[in-house]
TrEMBL record, chain A:
PROSITE patterns: PB1 (PS51745). GO terms for biological process: auxin-activated signaling pathway; regulation of DNA-templated transcription. The gene is LOC111298557. GO terms for cellular component: nucleus. Residues 181-279 form the PB1 domain. InterPro entries: AUX/IAA_dom, AUX_IAA, PB1-like. It is found in: Nucleus. Its main location: nucleus. It comes from Durio zibethinus. This is Auxin-responsive protein. It comes from the Eukaryota.
TrEMBL record, chain B:
Residues 4-45 form the F-box domain. It comes from Durio zibethinus. GO terms for molecular function: auxin binding. This is Protein AUXIN SIGNALING F-BOX 2-like. One of its GO terms (biological process) is auxin-activated signaling pathway. It is found in: Nucleus. The gene is LOC111293486. Keywords: Auxin signaling pathway, Developmental protein, Nucleus, Ubl conjugation pathway. Pathway: Protein modification; protein ubiquitination. GO terms for cellular component: nucleus; SCF ubiquitin ligase complex. InterPro entries: COI1_F-box, F-box_dom, Leu-rich_rpt, Leu-rich_rpt_Cys-con_subtyp, LRR_dom_sf, Transp_inhibit.
Length: 299, 571
């Protein structure tokens, strides 16, 4: 099984040493199979184009939803498109050379993949206002004309309440017609910059965790760091990690991510916070002696 | 020299309304400057950091209407971190302390807190009009304050804002005495609305001309509202899912017949496509139709509807209309001036439903077309050349091929010639957005022909610094230049540093400019503010050779802003 960078600690890998750089970020542990990753990894934030499914570099095309390393959220930079930026018009560059990896990946990623492939994952492209993007992505993309949309929506809401797992159909990712924005804010303790993540681009907690890892953490050892694959699965709820992923629900309570079915999570999440474990006391029983939850979340 | 006393000039200046003209007038001489500044009521500030509230207040004591824009345009596409800036509060705070009688506030890409809305609502007795476009930072609590405290409110227009909807009863906060509403647009709110309060509000607003509802307003309420407000000019439905056999549906049909003034229609955020025929009676008079948030219709339904809209001047639709549907638009809407075609599935595997064929059909059928925003699967040079010939009147031409570096699929060539034809033919072109595979050649053409160009958006284009230089040297009227992911570096940036003082702003992200280059520019041009948005923690201030992720520079009268967050370096 392949996994991504671990947001919240290495399950089997155990605690590697913590680097002593000033940045608080560096306290997050990163463990990987690849031997070129030293245990004390410098972590840095990176921002670049993120092209979903660009399996071109690695040929790995497992769908995001399984616990293996999905291609969604892998971050490339403009340097990954050498043929785009430096090649000149004259060579008959096939139309999507930079995205060919994507398309290959897209073909082999079954519908389970969930996260949109193709150009949808280049940050800020296509240039559509975020508000419009959220609205369009939230709408049920039913085949038109044939379907009675009214009935279709009622069924979807019923499905959600049955806690069905994501079935790979993009339509069903539009769970809640009312109220849910695709992009929610994410903050990480110790990092001044907040980000936004598109929840509609994910179909399960693993893929969300990987996307967040890419956003906030990266090994800085080599320029090509982003090309190397880290292969442990992310463990959102791992106790031994330094950070934990939490969310604020629509009632204003802070909850641990991962406890409820994905769709239910989608319908109630307002924003995310990657919290230091030390501050997360009280959110879930595993951080306490007792097993009582301080707040109970009604189903 | 002043041959007329001030009292004569003042009413003359009252006829001069455009900002550009007023700015010119104020430069003629000192006395004209003085007369103009006392008589100026409307001020437009395209970059809120180019000046400060104190200077505004000092110069224009008669200010009644203020327009402010905050974040750079690419912030709309999530390229600018959240806390970058563009805060409204300091402006309201300063204006509130002054004696300015603010009546109208129009904001774009600003961060608007509830505190600022509350202060606004309490500080200006005659406040009448609030328009927020693409803003964020406020909740429905802020709206409640506006509703409750602005006794003479005429306009509350919320367009595509990110609002934290507490589902409170903000609509109920309009007092019973409020009967002055002319325009109410809350289509972008996600939450529930107190329907009874809405009905009563509309019933006591005889001057209401524009009403745009959100998705939470069901069909039944729409029908009641239309009965109350047959005088509407502009209607945005919320949810339009009637039961075709219901009494409510019949009532709506007759209510629509009475709405003889509707010229502008939007909404249909949820829709029962089989009930669109009820709308046909008002289609004949429509000049603006916006169905870009109505993915629930089919191409056929949409086309059928449009066939009734012969007077349409502006049309915003989704691409499921298809090329054929665009052909129907072309043969029906001979008055069309503005067309926007958005992708139904923007994050999908690049499958837009329209191609160059649809655009060619439109250009052939709609010679008055002057403004275009077109998201498509592909484009050819031949098509663009044809479009340029058919429609020489473009003022705004924005083409977005979903695959950002796709060449002409027929010839495998870049789209240089096609865009070149557009800029050569359209002498009045003011705004241009490029996409597709493009070399430096397209910029040669732009620099040569686009003499009126004011705003240019570039992404994934060009080969070398030459490209950017063609534009900077050739486009004398350029005000805003925004570039992403293109190989332009320090040589282009630094060739003519004085140019940037003639522009509002320059944005460059994921290009080849280095920190050292930006520092050099900042040193040479103290009248500019050169900001580096530094999201990568490994970026150190001493590493001059590193390329910069995001640079945003703008001219300013007031030096470096004081509210920049940690990750923004102002050089």
């Amino acid at each position: 099984m392949e996994g991504g960078l671990i947001l919240l600690g290495g399950g089997g890998g155990g605690s590697s040493g913590v680097s002593t750089k000033e940045s608080a970020v560096s306290k997050v542990e990163v463990v990987s199979e690849a031997s070129s990753y030293p245990a004390e990894s410098e972590l840095e934030l990176g921002l670049g184009l993120s092209l979903g499914g660009s399996g071109g570099a690695t040929g790995k095309t497992k769908p995001a939803c399984s616990s293996s390393w999905g291609e969604c959220g892998r971050i490339l930079t403009a340097k990954d498109f050498p043929s785009v930026v430096s090649h000149k018009a004259n060579n008959g560059v096939p139309s999507s050379i930079a995205v060919s990896g994507t398309k290959r990946a897209a073909e082999s990623v079954s519908h389970e993949g969930g996260s949109p492939t193709g150009v949808g994952h280049v940050v800020g492209w296509p240039p559509i206002r975020a508000y419009r993007m959220n609205s369009l992505v939230n709408q049920a993309k039913a085949p038109r004309a044939e379907e009675d949309k009214e009935i279709c929506e009622k069924d979807k809401l019923k499905d959600a309440s049955k806690k069905k797992l994501y079935n790979g159909n993009k339509i069903s990712s539009a769970v809640n017609e009312k109220g849910h924005l695709g992009f929610v804010k994410v903050n990480m303790d110790g990092i001044p910059i907040g980000r936004k993540v598109d929840l509609n681009a994910h179909s399960c907690y693993e893929s969300l965790a990987q996307a967040l890892e890419d956003m906030f953490l990266r090994s800085a050892n080599s320029v090509g760091a982003e090309k190397e694959q880290v292969t442990k699965p992310s463990k959102l709820l791992d106790e031994s990690s330094e950070f934990v992923l939490t969310y604020e629900d629509k009632e204003g309570d802070w909850m641990l991510v991962g406890d409820v079915p994905w769709r239910m999570f989608l319908s109630s999440v307002r924003r995310l916070r990657i919290m230091r474990t030390s501050e997360a006391n009280g959110l879930a029983p595993r951080f306490h002696e007792s097993n009582e939850r301080q707040r109970s979340k009604p189903i | 020299m002043n041959y007329f006393p001030d009292e004569v000039l003042e009413p003359v200046f009252d006829f001069i309304t455009s900002h550009k003209d007023r700015n010119s007038v104020s430069l003629v001489c000192k006395s004209w400057f003085k007369i103009e500044r006392y008589s100026r009521q409307r001020v437009f500030i395209g970059n809120c950091y180019s000046t400060c509230p104190e200077r505004l207040i000092a110069r224009f004591p008669g200010l009644k209407s203020l327009t402010l824009k905050g974040k750079p345009h690419f912030a709309d596409f999530n390229l600018v971190p959240h806390d970058w800036g563009g805060f409204l509060y300091p402006w309201i705070e300063a204006l509130a302390k002054s004696r300015i009688g603010l009546e109208e506030l129009r904001l774009k890409r600003m961060v608007v807190s509830d505190e600022s809305l509350e202060l606004l609502s309490k500080s200006f007795v005659n406040f009448k009009s609030l328009v927020l476009v693409s803003c964020e930072g406020f909740t429905t609590d802020g709206l409640a304050a506006i509703a409750a405290n602005c006794r003479f409110l005429r306009e509350l227009d919320l367009q595509e804002n990110e609002v934290d909807d507490h589902r409170g009863h903000w609509l109920s906060c309009f007092p019973e005495s409020c009967t002055s509403l002319v325009s109410l647009n809350f289509a972008c709110l996600k939450g529930e609305i107190n329907l009874g309060a809405l009905e009563r509000l509309v019933a006591r607003s005889p001057n209401l001309k524009s009403l745009r509802l959100n998705r939470a307003v069901p069909f039944d309420t729409l029908e009641k509202l239309l009965m109350q407000a047959p005088q509407l000019l502009d209607l945005g439905t919320g949810s339009y899912v009637p039961d075709p056999s219901s009494e409510a549906y019949n009532r709506l049909k007759s209510a629509i017949q009475r709405c003889k003034s509707i010229r502008s229609l939007s909404g249909f955020l949820e829709v029962n496509p089989r009930c669109m025929s009820a709308i046909y009676p008002i289609c004949a008079n429509l000049t603006f139709l916006n169905l870009s948030y109505a993915p629930g219709l089919s191409g056929n339904e949409l086309t059928k509807l449009i066939q009734h809209c012969r007077k349409l001047q502006r049309l915003w639709i989704l691409d499921y209309i298809g090329d054929k549907g665009l052909g129907v638009v072309a043969s029906t809407c001979k008055e069309l001036q503005e067309l926007r075609v958005f992708p139904t599935d923007p994050l999908g595997a690049g499958n837009a439903a329209v191609t160059e064929e649809g655009l060619v059909l439109i250009s052939a059928g709609c010679p008055k077309l002057n403004s275009l925003l077109y998201f498509c699967q592909q484009m050819t040079n031949a098509a663009l050349i044809t479009v340029a010939k058919n429609c020489p009147n473009f003022i705004c031409f924005r083409l977005c091929i979903l695959d950002p570096i796709k060449p002409d699929p027929v010839t495998n060539r870049p789209l240089d010639e096609g865009f070149g034809a557009i800029v050569e033919s359209c002498e009045g072109l003011k705004r241009l957005s490029l996409s597709g595979l493009l070399s430096d050649q397209v910029f040669l053409y732009i620099g040569m022909y686009a003499k009126q160009l004011e705003m240019l958006s570039i992404a994934f284009a060009g080969d070398s610094d030459e490209g950017m230089l063609y534009v900077l040297n050739g486009c004398k009227k350029l005000r805003k230049l925004e570039i992403r992911d293109s190989p332009f570096g320090n040589a282009a940036l630094l060739e003519d540093v004085g140019k940037y003082e003639t522009m509002r702003s320059l944005w460059m992200s994921s290009c080849e400019v280095t920190l050292g280059g930006c520092k050099t520019l900042a040193e040479k041009m103290p009248s500019l503010s050169v900001e580096i948005i530094n999201e990568s923690q490994q970026m150190e201030f001493s590493l001059d050779d590193r390329t910069v992720d995001k640079m945003y520079l703008y001219r300013t009268l007031v030096g470096h802003r004081k509210d920049a967050p940690e990750f923004v370096w102002i050089l």
